Amino acid sequence: MEIIKSEKISYSYPVFEDPDSQENKELLEKKKEAAKALDGVSLEVRPGQFICILGRNGSGKSTFAKHLNALITPTEGTLWIDGMDTKDEEKLWDIRRTVGMVFQNPDNQIIGSIVDEEVAFGLENIGASTRDIRKGVYKALEEVNMREYAKVSPNKLSGGQKQRVAVAGVLAMNPKCIVLDESTAMLDPRGRKEVMDTVKKLNKDDGITIISITHYMEEALEADYIFVMDNGQVRMQGTPREIFSREEEIEELGLKLPQLCQLAKALRNKGMDIPMGITTEEELKDAITKRQISENDSEITAGEK
Amino acid sequence: MIIKLDHVNYIYNPDTVEKVIAVDDVNLEIGGNSLTAIIGSTGSGKSTLIQMLNGLLKPTSGTVSYDGEVIFTEGKETKEQKKKIRDLRCRVGLVFQYPEYQLFDETVLKDVCYGPKNQGFTQEEAEKKARKALEEVHMPEKSILKSPFDLSGGQKRRAAIAGVLAMEPEVLILDEPTAGLDPKGKTEVLDLLKRYQREKETTVILVSHSMEEVAQYADRVIAMHKSKVILDGPTHEVFSHREELEAIGLGVPEVQAFTESLGIKDAITVQEACDAILQRQKAE
């Protein structure tokens, strides 16, 4: 069974309608149209996948993310999380335990005054026993490599460490899926790497499904599968190789190729024989050096003759 | 304008157990016709440093001078000094992180007028300056009478930058001007800053966490680590210190790391990498 199954979901942010206002109908319709953030999104995610969602600002990525743990529910269509309809209010807490969210700004989501208290917050809320809380908290901190900071105040941590604590808080609830909504956007390069390495490990070792929403194309290169959104719709989907082969479309959608792919494209435009859809340094290196080898080969053959 | 920092220190909560040295004995001269990038990991002192550059923070010790003139001195400021500090903040414009959160007025135009009006310009003059600034950030004519909240993410950011440009600062400082923007929005903002800097032959200073951005746009790079400046020089020069940069958690642009694995040095942008690879192939 899919962990996420979205069937033609649409969502409009509420538009305030003043019954006494003489505001003309046309303008109201326009406002309603503008408030439409998702427009018929259908997609499926299998357990254990590492998914990236790309798209320009305002394309609907975050609105979609908020659906994944039922912070909001579709205006039209249906979203199933691990077989549960997100509109089923009885399943609300199960859904929120299944999918954990980590947001962009670590300072807006950390509330505890000591790291282990922060991580315990979710477990305390569901009424876990003291023993279970302790066990869960320390296991989660271990997993994100923050065990030694358990008794530190979160405001003494770097951005990357704070985000790892936020991941631990989610992890303590034993989720099947973690959603990262631009969780690396405010971090320095090391912080970004720490967070990405942590979630990659959780994905690989524990089979946790990861949905990562990001503007860093380099992060998307390592995903199993990518969805590109625009205007509230899924406009492209495929493996990184498939997506980054469609160079023109990527740019039309307000995105940019990762530097490696930009270099491949630039060399190809200058007449070098570089295949489409290069996604790793190794592949590009091979493509560049192979050309040299094949030229050398032909010289040798010519010499022998 | 040349801003000169001489043995500048900044300490938060001095004389307490919570004492934090944020800037430690920094000596710098920034100015002239250049786009300077300040890099460093979180907590390395970048934000404190730039706030001292426009007089928002007063150094705990050491002096900051502007074209040779020292504005801050020990002890309480006189009335005259206070006026000078006020003027200084107009001469050195500072754009904070996520500046669009500070947009507030009914229309983009009104919002951008706010600065010049505070400087004492008449409505008419302020509007003229605002329109010019909005033109500089390439704001479409049809957007300037819209509510700032109806703009896209990249446009909002550009409107906020225009708000500072309208005060016609001699030096423009921006704290992570591209954070949170999509790739196209990032390119728009950086292109506009570069163009502005070139046309006015002025000084633009920006803080960035993206080495790729820095390599492509900056003329000079200042790297901070643990409150000190540890590298300072032309962009290529600074990125040739790969080991030091990696040791402080920053690293070099992806494309540079890649070309170095091919044995090519000094290519820090995609264009340079492409040229270097082609040239080498030609030579062989």
Kindly describe this structure:
Chain A is of the alpha/beta class and 305 residues long. Chain A has helices at 25-34, 61-68, 92-98, 106-109, 115-125, 130-143, 159-171, 189-206, 217-220, 240-245, 247-252, 259-269, 281-304; strands at residues 4-12, 36-45, 50-54, 76-81, 84-85, 99-102, 177-181, 209-213, 225-230, 233-238. Chain A has 2 domains: 4-248, 3-Layer(aba) Sandwich (Rossmann fold), CATH 3.40.50.300; 258-305, no CATH class. In chain A, helix 5 (115-125) crosses helix 6 (130-143). The termini of chain A are far apart. The relative contact order of chain A is 0.13. Chain B is 41% helix and 23% strand. Chain B has helices at 46-53, 79-91, 108-118, 123-136, 153-165, 183-200, 211-217, 235-239, 242-247, 254-261, 270-283, and strands at residues 2-12, 20-31, 34-39, 61-66, 69-70, 92-95, 171-175, 203-207, 220-225, 228-234. Chain B is globular. The interface between A and B is large, with 40 and 36 residues.
What is the compact description of this entry?
The complex is a heterodimer of chains A (305) and B (284). With 305 residues, chain A is an alpha/beta fold.
What keyword list fits this structure?
heterodimer, A: 305 residues, alpha/beta, Rossmann fold, 2 domains, six-stranded mixed beta sheet, 13 helices, 19% strand, B: 284 residues, four-stranded antiparallel beta sheet
| Proportion in β-strands of chain B | 15-25%
Which fold does the CATH topology of the largest domain in chain A refer to? Rossmann fold
Distance between the termini of chain B: 48 Å
CATH arch. level architecture of the largest domain in chain A: 3-Layer(aba) Sandwich
CATH-wise, what's the superfamily of the largest domain in chain B? P-loop containing nucleotide triphosphate hydrolases
> pLDDT below 50 for ≥5 consecutive residues: which ranges of chain B?
none
Question: Approximately how much helix is present in the residues of chain A?
Answer: 40-55%
